[in-house]
Design goal:
13 helices; 41% helix
Length: 394
């Protein structure tokens, strides 16, 4: 065979058809430019609290460098059980209903792979985190998108849910508090969906990675509602609440039959999560509450500043109830979201993410992370105000 021979079809059709992440594209653009203020990537600007880092260092010094069980340290699973029960009134058994994963992203992946047969439909509430659609497709499923809108504060309604269910529908996946909108759901709002979920015997994959970043009240988990625990796969982790993104540590909770299926995939693909990260997470759960609360209060203050700032420069923006994102409308400028984001980056050096990378109902919006300092947010708003005034005047 000639060294110049072109080899074709080396990728599967499924993988070849996947689109690159829209978030990463703008992050990479911003990283190549000087003086950019990035409101693009959803990552805390806080360093992992010292007590958590120190616990990791101590574990290394004591020789914790080996594999753990596939399911993760039982001590950590027991601590997560206690945490979920005390904070969110959800109780999963640490030995049979809980698995420590390499970030919440792995938990989402193995949850979908464990339940999907080829052709199964999975309902996806939009706007949504960019990985849901491709991971569903990689598992052999078909995503079916449910629309929400700003007028309803991006909350799912029972009418929208019912309208998209078919005989092939297996599950529904959502994230509340939501990435990218910052909206969340109350127990009362969840309760309106339960008759539809039960009627069609749906599995629920609830991505609750932003649970602790709920402002003004405690987070309501759908798994805590009557009859929902056994049909809910609850996913969370340590990245957002404890500023531990790079540690790659998450967990998934589900009934024993579902958890056993996920454990099979996990033990063949990941084996176990890093032991030193698990030791750090133990410290975060046991003694990191005050650190977490200080970070959440800072996010709340930034939320207030940013939402008012967008309104002041002429961009309608609902008040996010959780996470650390604002999702203002840019329709008043007459620009499409991608053009708005690209021009804002090139002309004013502020990086944001077009809302339609999170689904069609994100059109006319941009996602802005306020997980950065108030000083940087003020500068960004000044630049954005100048940009909005310029494009709106034409």
């Amino acid at each position: 065979m000639s060294q110049h021979t072109v080899l074709r079809n080396r990728l599967s059709q499924t993988v070849a058809s996947l689109k690159p992440s829209g978030i990463r594209r703008f992050f990479d653009l911003a990283a190549s430019m000087e003086g950019v203020i990035s409101l693009g990537v959803g990552e805390p600007d806080f360093v992992t609290p010292w007590r958590v880092r120190e616990a990791c260092i101590s574990s290394l010094e004591r020789g914790y460098t080996a594999y753990t069980s596939n399911a993760g340290l039982l001590e950590l699973r027991k601590e997560i059980h206690k945490y979920l029960e005390e904070r969110f009134f959800v109780s999963y058994h640490p030995e049979t209903e809980m698995l420590i994963t390499v970030g919440a992203s792995e938990a989402i992946d193995i949850a979908l792979r464990a339940i999907i047969d080829p052709g199964d439909e999975v309902l996806v509430v939009e706007p949504c985190y960019v990985s849901y659609e491709p991971v569903i497709r990689l598992a052999g499923g078909e995503p079916v998108f449910l629309r929400t809108n700003a007028e309803q504060q991006f909350k799912l309604t029972p009418e929208e849910l019912e309208a998209h269910i078919s005989p092939r529908t297996k599950a529904i996946i959502f994230c509340y508090p939501n990435n990218p909108t910052g909206s969340t759901m109350t127990a009362e709002e969840w309760s309106k969906l339960l008759p539809v979920i039960e009627k069609h015997d749906l599995l629920v994959i609830s991505d609750e990675i932003y649970a602790e970043l709920t402002y003004g009240r405690m987070h309501d988990s759908i798994a805590a509602l009557p009859g929902m625990k056994d049909r809910t796969i609850l996913i969370s982790g340590f990245s957002k609440a404890f500023a531990m993104t790079g540690w790659r540590l998450g967990y998934v909770c589900a009934s024993p039959d579902l958890l056993a299926g996920m454990l099979k995939i996990h033990q063949y693909t990941m084996l176990c999560a890093p032991v030193m990260a698990q030791m750090a997470a133990l410290e975060a759960l046991r003694h990191g509450q005050a650190d977490m609360e200080r970070m959440v209060e800072s996010y709340r203050q930034r939320r207030n500043f940013v939402v008012q700032g967008f309104q002041d420069i002429g961009l309608a923006c609902h008040e996010s109830e959780g996470a650390f994102y604002a999702f203002p409308s840019i329709r008043s400028t007459g620009l499409e979201a991608a053009e708005f984001a690209e021009r804002l980056l090139m002309e004013e050096k502020v990086a944001v993410v077009p809302g339609d990378v999170f689904g069609d109902c994100g059109k006319g919006h941009i996602r802005c992370s306020y997980a950065t300092s108030l000083e940087q947010l003020q500068k960004a708003l000044e630049r954005m105000g100048r940009f909005v005034q310029k494009v709106s005047a034409k």
